[in-house]
Amino acid sequence: MKYNISVKQFIDQGKNIDHNDFHSKLIEELKRINKKFHLLQCIDESKPQAKPSLFSLPISVKDNICTKGLQSSAGSQILNGYIPPFDATSVARTKEAGGAVIGKTNQDEFGFGTFSTNCGYAVPKNPLDPERSCGGSSGGAAGLVAALNYPHIALAESTGGSISCPAAFCSVVGLTPTYGLVSRYGLIDYANSLDKIGPIGKCVYDTALALSIIAGHDNRDSTSLHVAKKDYTKCLGKDIKSMKIGVPKEYFNNTDKKIEKYVWDAIKKLESLGATYKEISLPTTKYALASYYIIATAEASTNLSKYCGMRYGLHLGMEGNFNEYFSRVRSKGFGEEAKRRIILGTFARLSGYREAYYLKAMRVRTAIIQDFKLAFKKFDVIAAPTMPVLPPKFSEIAKLSPLQNYQMDVLTVPANLAGVPMISLPARKGEMIGLHLIGDHLKEEKILQVASAYEAMK
C-alpha cells in the first residue's frame, strides 16, 4: 500500500490502514532521508498503538521541546544525553489525541540562528536544494515536512521567526500562534517573553489541525492564556470577500526582487478573490531588529546560566573550584554563537547599561505593539514577504558576519516582539519564497482563512 497521502486522508482512513506496515516503512524512509539531509537528531522506532482521533499520525518534535524517553538537547552539546522524564504539554496533548512521536528534529543551538548552521549535532540540508539552508532555527522540522512523502506534522518553536523562516525556505506552511495560546511548559527556553510553540505542515489544514490540538490554557505555564479550545479547521474554505489587507511598505525595503514580485502577485490574487488591500506604514519596523536582539540575548543569558554541568547534560571531571569547573563545562558545551549571545545578553543586563539598552529596548517593543494595534483597527490581516532573501547556499552563509546573519530576521522579529500570530505559506508552489500573513492577537482564524483561500487557488 502507498502512503503518500495527506494528513486528512490518513485520519479519515485510519481504521483501515495496516499500521504495522505503515510504521515499518515510515522508519525505513526516515532513516533514508536522515542519512541524506541530516534533519533528525534521533528517530523513535518504538511502535505506537493506533488510537483515535489521529490514529498514530507521525509527529516530529523540535529538539528543544521535551519528549519523555527521547533525548531533548535543544541542538546543544551541553545537553547531550539529557532524556526528560516527562512530555511538554504540547507533546502530551498530541499523544492524547492519538499522535505518535517519530523523532526529534535538528535545530540551531537553543534557537540561536537563522540557517540551522549552529547545530551541535548535524546541519540539516534543504531537501529542495541540498546546497542551501533549510532556514532556522526550526530547520530540521521544516526540512522533514518537505522531504517526507508521508502524512506528518512537525511541532516547532519560534522566538524571532524560527517557524516562518524555515517554512518559507522549504516551501511548506508554518503557523506561529499568539504568545500564550500554546503552553510553553516543557520547552527549553531561549527567551521566555518571546518563545512560541507552533506547527509546520505541508498545507494550511495540517497546521490548523495541530493548533486545535495543542492550544489551550495550562496551569503549569504562568503565561498561558485562558482561552477556550477551538477547532481551527472550521475557518478553512471560507471566502475572503470582506477581508481588508494591509501591506507594509517597509517590509519590501532591500528585499530580493524575485521575492517582491511573487509576493505582490500573491496579494493581487487575494484581491481577485474579493479582498481589498492598501499600502500602509509600520514606522517602528526599523527599530525592531535592535530591540529584539537586546531583549532576546538578555533573556537567553539568564536562561542559559543554569547549564553548569551539575544536574544534567554534559559533565566533566570535578577539578578546581566551582567557577573553574563551570567555565570548563560551558566552554566545551556551548557553541560559538551561544557564547556570543550569552556575552551580549550579560552586557545588556549589567547595572550600568540596563537603562541604556534593555529598558530602552522594552519601550521600543511597546511602540511596535502599538504600531500593529493601530494597523489592525483598519485591517484584518497584514501581508508581506516572509524573508528578504532566497535560502542562501552554505558557502554563502560561511562568508556572513554575525551582524549580517542577524539582519536576515528583519521581517519576522517585529511580529514576534508583538506576540501576534503569523503564518508563512508558499507564495508560489514549489518556490522557496514565503507569503507572510500576520494577524492581531488571538485572530488565528483570520490568517488561516486567508491562507486557506490563497492555497486553494494555486
Model description:
- This protein has helices spanning 7-12, 19-37, 89-96, 139-147, 164-169, 204-214, 257-272, 285-303, 322-333, 336-349, 354-376, 394-397, 402-407, 413-418, 444-456; strands at residues 40-43, 58-62, 100-105, 125-126, 129-133, 153-158, 173-176, 196-201, 244-248, 276-280, 381-385, 422-426, 434-438.
- With 458 residues, the chain is an alpha/beta fold.
- It folds into two domains: 7-241 and 383-456, Amidase signature (AS) domain (Amidase signature (AS) enzymes), CATH 3.90.1300; 285-361, no CATH class.
- The strands form two sheets. It has an eleven-stranded mixed sheet, sandwiched between helices. It has a two-stranded antiparallel sheet with strand order 4-5.
- Helix 8 (285-303) packs across helix 11.
- The two termini are 29 Å apart.
Q: Can you describe this structure in just a few lines?
A:
This protein is 38% helix and 14% strand. The protein is α/β, with parallel strands linked by helices and 458 residues long.
Order of helices and strands: HHEEHEEEHEHEEHEHEHHHHEHHHEEH
If you compute it from the alpha carbons, what radius of gyration comes out, rounded to the nearest whole angstrom? 21 Å
Please give the CATH architecture of the largest domain. Answer: Alpha-Beta Complex
Number of strands: 13
* Level-1 CATH class name of the largest domain: Alpha Beta
- In total, how many domains does the architecture comprise? 2
Q: Which structural class do the helices and strands define?
A: alpha/beta
Tally of DSSP helical segments = 15
The biggest beta sheet is recorded as:
11 strands, mixed
- Any idea what the shape is? globular
Strand order of the largest sheet: 1-3-2-6-8-7-12-13-11-9-10
Distance between the termini: 29 Å
Helical content stands at 25-40%
Would you tell me the overall average pLDDT?
A: 96
Low-confidence stretches: none
The CATH topology of the largest domain is given as Amidase signature (AS) enzymes
CATH homolog superfamily of the largest domain: Amidase signature (AS) domain
How much strand? 5-15%
